[in-house]
Amino acid sequence: MTAHTYAYEDPILTLNGVSITLNNEQILRDINAQVLNVTRPNMSQGQVVGFYGRSGIGKSVLCRIMAGLIAPGTGTVEVGLAQQPVTPGMVGFVQQRYPLFDHRTLHDNLLVAAQRKHAPADARQHVDAYLERFGLAPHRRKYPALLSGGQRQRAAIAQQLLCSDHLILLDEPFSGLDVAMIDEVKRIIVEVTTMDELNTVIIVSHDIVTTTALADRLWLLGYEHDAAGALVPGATISPQHQYNLAEMGLAWHENVEAEPEFAQFVEHIKNEIRGS
Ligand SMILES: Nc1ncnc2c1ncn2[C@@H]1O[C@H](COP(=O)(O)OP(=O)(O)OP(=O)(O)O)[C@@H](O)[C@H]1O
Ligand SMILES: [Mg+2]
After folding, report:
1. Is 110 in the pocket of ligand 1 (CB under 6 A)?
2. Which of 7, 19, 82, 236 has the fewest CB within 10 Å, making it most exposed?
């Protein structure tokens, strides 16, 4: 087990008292959580948050709130060093099913995204660079229907990186991928988060081992019980379910999956999820 030297600076994402009720059902309750810019000597170290919770508990709903696509009933989401209230387009969001425009080629799909942030000539250059980096250049003229699941996945990640600032949400990025493709998406995530100090990726996943290995912070969305032992409606991320993997000496290890402390921690997390 190796602990790396690191420090924390300004907040990049702040969730303040976020609650939401949908169809008269309280889904999320009073969520308070923050991602700080983590720095390491002589490198650009972005942030990776693993975000877990039982199926149907509200992870995708919270993603939509963090992306500014739906407003919480109460509470605020602030993003970036300026800590501005989130609005649509500020945060990249690769949804559980990654939508691309079916009537545009892969290249043109990415160009539409890039032009939201860059001038036309720059946009083309960025698209070419991302097509190369994500191994998609040979498929640039294909329409989305002709792409494999993994290719669509990488295209959707590239698309969000091209048009958003530093924060990107990946909802279930590993589901439906083969082992080689999972390794590839893992590499892309590491690359994205070491490309720029401020780049921050939040990964929603049921693949606890893969995601924990990439993360420096974990959030676990679950229910709490009141003093009488009754379940409190609305899921939340309680302080004891916000884990700092850097502090635990489990962040940024090349082959952390092989370490006994990692295996023990993953077991602990799985038990917490089962009990939540
Ligand atoms: N627009 C909506 N209107 C009403 N209820 C909704 C809406 N969207 C989601 N829900 C409900 O909110 C709850 C949380 O859904 P959500 O999709 O966030 O779960 P999840 O944690 O992402 O689950 P999974 O791991 O299966 O993807 C579910 O009970 C769902 O039915
Ligand atoms: Mg979901």
Report:
1. no
2. 82
- Which CATH superfamily hosts domain 7-91+166-274? P-loop containing nucleotide triphosphate hydrolases (3.40.50.300)
In the reported structure, the alpha carbon of residue 110 is separated from the centroid of ligand 2 by a whole-number distance in angstroms of 24
Tell me, in angstroms, the distance from the centre of ligand 1 to residue 170's CA: 16
Q: Which of 18, 59, 62, 96 to mutate to test the pocket of ligand 1 (most atoms within 8 A of CB)?
A: 59
Q: What is the pLDDT of residue 187?
A: 86
Question: Does 59 contact ligand 1 (Cβ within 6 A)?
Answer: yes
Closest CA to 57 of 26, 98, 34: 26
Sheet holding 25-39, edge to edge: 25-39, 7-22, 74-79, 84-85
Handedness of CA 111, 117, 122, 125 (dihedral sign): negative
DSSP state of 43: B
The stretches in the chain having pLDDT less than 50 are none
pLDDT of res. 97:
67
Q: CA-to-CA distance for 272 and 237, rounded, in angstroms? A: 12
H or E element in which residue 33 lies: strand 25-39
Q: For the segment 103-153, what is each residue's pLDDT rounded down to a tens digit?
A: 999 999 999 999 988 999 999 999 999 899 888 999 999 999 999 888 888
**Residue ranges covered by each domain of the chain:** 7-91+166-274, 98-163
List the strands of the sheet with 167-171, edge to edge: 92-94, 167-171, 200-204, 47-52, 217-220, 242-244
Look at ligand 1, atom 29, and give the residue with the nearest C-alpha: 56
Cβ atoms of 211 and 190 within 8 Å: the answer is: no
The reported pLDDT for the residue numbered 89 is 87
What dihedral angle (degrees, nearest 10) is formed by the CA atoms of 100, 103, 105, 109? Answer: -40
User: What's residue 275's pLDDT?
Assistant: 87
